[in-house]
Amino acid sequence: DVKVTQSSRYLVKRTGEKVFLECVQDMDHENMFWYRQDPGLGLRLIYFSYDVKMKEKGDIPEGYSVSREKKERFSLILESASTNQTSMYLCASSFGTGSRDTQYFGPGTRLTVL
Amino acid sequence: DQQVKQNSPSLSVQEGRISILNCDYTNSMFDYFLWYKKYPAEGPTFLISISSIKDKNEDGRFTVFLNKSAKHLSLHIVPSQPGDSAVYFCAASATNTNAGKSTFGDGTTLTVKP
User: Fold this and answer.
1) Cα angle, residue A109 at apex, residues A4 and A25 outer, rounded to 5°
2) Any CB–CB contact under 8 A between A109 and chain B?
3) Nearest chain B Cα to A89, which residue?
4) What mean pLDDT do residues A96-103 have?
5) pLDDT tens column, A1-49
């Protein structure tokens, strides 16, 4: 069974703080993704990575950065958290480079920025 | 420009009846389509998929239909059960996309009443 874990289920931070969200997968997947989920807006892709140290911007990268130093770990960084970054953050991974690859999701981190 | 749209934010059906969830897409390069199901406080999980070379794929109570000319797909659940109550996301991907990146719709919240 593929397991994707996220470092926190709930997180509360203050405006201007630097925030790290960590994601780890245990199935040697090539690809990893960060999404945010907001009511009425579905899942929006922030960043993704198809290899160690490789990253690509998704649809809404502004205000975020990522790091992938090891294959199993993909970190999302909010350099200076703002209230409009309050959201549910979901990490996912998939096996290869094919379009047919299913994504496996973590349980999500509910981030509140005060 | 939203490339994958689920126009019904919510759907309510009676237990035992059919649930039909709809999804429209605009990008003609999409050639693989997936449905994910999401329960509250959990990450989405893969449900069923269909390739563009097919017009129907069935897995137990779940059937996905694809109408390429209309750029429309639908998920049928028969019979619907209370445990099917969840948010359903439609996703689409294109061959040769980096990391098999998928584009998600906004989701439809299905409520199955006992």
Assistant:
1) 15
2) no
3) B43
4) 74
5) 669 999 999 999 999 999 999 999 998 999 999 999 998 888 999 999 9
- Comparing CA positions, the residue from A21, A27, A28, A26 lying closest to residue A6 is A21
Identify the residue whose tokens are 């019979």: B79
Tokens of A90: 């979901």
Q: What is the pLDDT of residue A20?
A: 97
pLDDT, tens digit (0-9, with 9 covering 90-100), for B13-60: 999 999 999 999 999 999 999 999 999 889 999 999 999 999 999 999
For residue A103, what are the contacts with CB-CB under 8 A and spacing of at least 6?
Answer: A33, A92, A93, A94, B36, B44, B46, B102
A52 inside 8 A of chain B by CB: no
Radius of gyration of chain B, Cα coordinates, nearest whole angstrom: 14
Of B34, B36, B100, the CB nearest to A98: B100
CB pairs under 8 A between A and B: 78
Identity of the residue numbered B98: N
Distance from CA of B82 to the nearest CA of A (A): 22
- Please state the rounded mean pLDDT for residues A43-57: 92
Note whether B65 and B73 are within 8 A (CB).
Answer: yes
A99:B96 CB<8 A: yes
